[in-house]
Amino acid sequence: MTEIIYEPERYELEAAPVYHFELARRDFFKVLGGGIVVIFTLKDVLAQQESGGGRQRDFGRAMPQEIGAWLHIGEDSVVTVYTGKVEVGQNIRTSLTQVVAEELHVPLTAIRLVMGDTELTPFDMGTFGSRTTPVMATQLRRVAATARELLLDLAAEQWKEDRASLVVSEGKIVHPATKRSLSFGQLTRGQKLMKTISGNVATTPADQWRVAGKSVPKVDGRVFVTGKHQFTPDIKLPGMLYGKVLRPAAFGATLASLDTQAAENLPGVVVVRDGNFVGVAAPSEHLAARAIAAIKAEWKTTPQPSSKELFDYLKKNAVETQGAEGRSGFTRGSITEGLAAAQHKLEGTYTVAYIAHAPLEPRAAVAEWRDDRLTVWTGTQRPFGVRSELATAFRIPEERVRVIMPDTGSGYGGKHTGEAALEAARLAKAAGKPVKLVWTREEEFTWAYFRPAGVIEIASGVQNDGTITAWEFHNYNSGAAAIRTLYDIPHQRIQFHAARSPLRQGSYRALAATANHFARETHMDELAALVKMDPLEFRLKNLKDERLRAVLEAAAKAFGWGKRKASSDRGFGIAGGFEKGSYVASCAEVALDRKSGQVRITRVVTAFECGAIINPDGLKNQIEGAIVQGIGGALFEAIEFEDGKILNPRFSRYRVPRFSDLPLLETILLDRKDLPSAGAGETPIVCLAPAVGNAIFNATGVRLRSLPMVPNGLQA
Amino acid sequence: MSKVTELYVNGSRHRLAAEPERSLLSVLREELNLTGSKYGCGEGQCGACTVLLDGRPVRSCITLLSAAAGKQITTIEGLEKNGRLHPLQQAFLDADALQCGYCTPGMIISALGLLRKNPNPSEQEIIQAMEGNICRCGTYPRIVAAIRQAAKAQKGGAL
User: Which residues contact A234 (CB under 8 A, 6 or more apart)?
Assistant: First the structure.
């Protein structure tokens, strides 16, 4: 059975629910002119006690063991595969289709994936942690292989032939000796496949793959280039209203007074107040916006820390973390001894800012109540988690809630929670009609959660010959992912310290691996400079791990490491690392305009190894995308805030990478067919920032220890 | 102000009754059910809502309906003809120039506006023309490659 690693920095899953709905009659405002009558019953409210904590209890739930839960073969031989994983641009709809096609010997076009629908697909904890490939692809491979064996059994029995004389090919079982064949559909006749999935069923080894391992195009690319794909904001139900929420004036603000009369007077508008939740539903988006604007609200706010004092605040508000071992800490040898053995000692403090995921599709949901059952379409990486949130908020059993996740306009770890779903469902309940609610960009920038900010302190010792003897590493707040070093250091103390965060924070692509790699690989570069060694040579000297050595060497070779000399306006940097089963190394070249301070990343070579590759071009696309996204966090992205308000909540004030930021990108894929496939959507992002910072140092001698490194250009 | 009662979209005349101060994007999406154009920012910064207005790319989220009345509007839905993809759409597929696909319609329409004006753009010209479109998944290199491929495919022919 698959083990579930609980990663401590998934803050968004531990946080208290955003809403505590009262769902009481007195909180409803009846519509005056619009003819919409608010109908709801109190029995829902009383039906269940708040179960509470619905977010955590599903960790480790077992996967169903019957083929029929995962795979169905129709009478027309169409294969439908059910998975609770969701597509947010990682291309898993295609890669999972490939592994099923591989084992079942059917064309890709004969397979249809149903993803992330709590009514139809087996329970799934969520699409995060790069676990679709190692866990779900492995599971579906076994499912498909077991189904294939069952089909062989069925055909052998029907024909009274030796099973070994049959072959599976293109959706058929064939008996070559008699040239007989039966399609899968003819064999199963649309019946549910009841066989138990075998843990030791033979699956095709990677070096014999015919469909997996190939760069097949996206299975449903056409619906995206024609604009036909229906993302959540594109869904329209009969009689549907458009919802909008009145946002508090600041984080943590509470309502002091509220006057909704003018909004209620608008035709067809429903106004809902439930505790601190105030929202409207209206016949058009336009009218919903007008209704919200017509509401007069006074908010009681409290003073809060600002981005200017952020890092001091995090250090001062660190809380004791239980357990120095495991994922959040590690100790080996003695730091005192290690430092005593060193000729050089070095200390460095590194910081990372809060950044926003800014998925281009903002949070959105369409909610419909019918006969006390709730259906919500929403873009979330955790459809089952959102179902649980909804059941808790409305105090109904999970069986009466269905969450459907249409393939969504990206997430990057930012869509693990169900705010929009809760809001749309609350409004729909009051309106007695389906409600669609799409967050504005400003709402997305303000009321979603952020990548955690953090402070990292490193103290180290190194000998003249470049041997690192001591490594002490403390991460405050950002997280423990990839906090350990793969370099061979005899004396280590590594610790993550949780802290009180001024902003709501949560998962972001690769979690804290980006922050921890930035600090570690920058510090490694500083140590190399201290002992006057080449940064690559220095790393290799302290590194036995063959897989990390391989990516470092591959990236360096393709980059031409050491072949060109840095100048005051051009530098080269390298960084390597490991996370979630994948190894990565990036080499970066930067060009600097010393007068204007402008920094341009001109070339990035990334070598990546994640075991056996399922779809090389899909993987390449993910690596390129991670590098491009990483440019933002490395150079210029940062959330600015003051007194519970975000100061730059829009694209005109929060710069994200654009076409002109694009470096020349090269990716080197190391395909290890002898190793299991690991996920690859996250890890390629982790080395970009340190490689770029190291390149800036290489050109200028200026060491940048804060992400983003040059939000206002290179100073001085 | 009186309501806008007709729009010309993708070669067809559409009847409607909408307030002239509404955004073109909301009217296309809500009234005409043309949901291929996406909301991304509401301030003309991300390009997900791009449509052509008399052949020129505009951000429909900040274009008032009144400004679009009487003009020829082209949206992503108008590119596929009789089941045949437009060369730009095909090029996006061939280059796998998308991940989540949310920015894709706006990217394709912006690129169409560029190629209509400049059938053979240099890489620099492509980057300049596309600078107002955000792909948060970072598929920029593939989008540039797709636009180049479409330009090549259309050499001598009109897009």
Answer: B29, B35
What is the distance between the alpha carbons of residues B141 and B135, in angstroms, rounded to a whole number?
Answer: 11
Tens digits of residue pLDDT in B32-87: 999 999 999 999 999 999 999 999 999 999 999 999 999 999 999 999 999 999 99
Instruction: Give the separation between CA B57 and CA B73, rounded to whole angstroms.
Output: 10
Please give the Cα distance from A614 to A610 (Å, whole number): 10
Give CA–CA dist A499/A479, Å, rounded: 10
Return the DSSP state at B78. G
Pairs across A and B, CB distance < 8 A: 171
Is A155 in contact with A182 (CB distance < 8 Å)? yes
């990108």: which residue's tokens? A665
In this prediction the pTM is 0.94
Which residues have CB under 8 Å from B146's CB, separation 6+?
B88, B91, B92, B94, B95, B97, B111
Which residue does chain A place closest to B99, by CA atoms? A89
Cα–Cα distance for residue pair A628/A65, rounded to 1 Å: 40
Q: Give the contacts of A74 (CB within 8 A, at least 6 positions apart).
A: A80, A185, A190
Tell me whether residues B45 and A652 touch, CB distance under 8 A. Answer: yes
Name which of A72, A65, A204 is nearest A151 in CA terms.
Answer: A72
Tallying the residues shown for chain B, one arrives at: 159
Using the predicted structure, report yes or no on whether residue A26 has a pLDDT greater than 50.
no
Q: Which amino acid is at A177?
A: A
Per-residue pLDDT tens digits for A637-685 = 999 999 999 999 999 999 999 999 999 999 999 999 999 999 999 999 9
CB-CB under 8 Å, A221 with B96: yes
**How far away is chain A from the Cα of B145, in angstroms, using its nearest Cα?**
12
Given a cut of 50, whether residue A227 has pLDDT beyond it is yes
The secondary structure of A302-338 as a DSSP string is -----GGGHHHHHHHTB-PPS-SSGGGEEEES-HHHH
Contacting residues of A for B90, CB less than 8 Å apart = 225
Which among B30, B99, B130, B149 is the top mutation candidate for probing chain A, defined by the most A β-carbons within 10 Å of its own β-carbon?
Answer: B99
Contact list, B95 vs chain A (CB under 8 Å): none
pLDDT confidence of residue A326? 53
Instruction: Select from A278, A267, A100, A129 the least CA-distant residue to A679.
Output: A129
3-class SS letters over A245-295: ECCCCCCCCEEEEEECHHHHCCCCCEEEEECCEEEEEECCHHHHHHHHHHC
Is 50 exceeded by the pLDDT of residue A39?
A: no
Chain A positions in Cβ-Cβ contact with residue B37 (cut-off 8 Å): 227
pLDDT score of A41 more than 50: no
- The encoded tokens of residue A256 equal 């002091």
| A11 to chain B, closest Cα gap in Å | 23
Q: How far is A661 from chain B (nearest CA, A)?
A: 9
Q: Which helix (H) or strand (E) holds A491?
A: strand A491-497
Task: Select from B126, B138, B142 the Cβ nearest to the Cβ of A657.
Answer: B138
Angle at A121 between CA A677 and CA A405, to 5 degrees: 90
Residue with tokens 């290179």: A714
pLDDT, average across residues A564-584: 97
Q: Which of B58, B76, B150, B135 is nearest to B101 (CA)?
A: B135
DSSP E strand boundaries for A116-166? none
Contact A652 B43 (CB under 8 A): yes
Give A516 or A42, the one with higher predicted confidence. A516
Cβ separation B36–A650 shorter than 8 A? no
pLDDT band with cut points at 50, 70 and 90 for residue A327: low
First-to-last C-alpha distance (Å) of chain B:
37
Q: What is the DSSP string of A660-704?
A: GGPPEEEEEE---TTS-----SSGGGTTHHHHHHHHHHHHHSPPP
